[in-house]
Amino acid sequence: MGPTERLAVAKTYKLYVAGAFPRSESGRTYPVTDAGGRLLAHAALASRKASATP
Prior knowledge:
Layout: E1 29-33, E2 39-44, H1 48-51
Antiparallel strand pairs: 1-2
């Protein structure tokens, strides 16, 4: 690999709940699209445990 080449790395999406980044247990996401079907984001699939307030 040359000095200008980049290694492809899969993006890790994280949750942000109540001012903190709770640990994702499943790592699953789902696509969020607008009315026209264009991809806006990949939202993390949270469990009730991840969204519970501390």
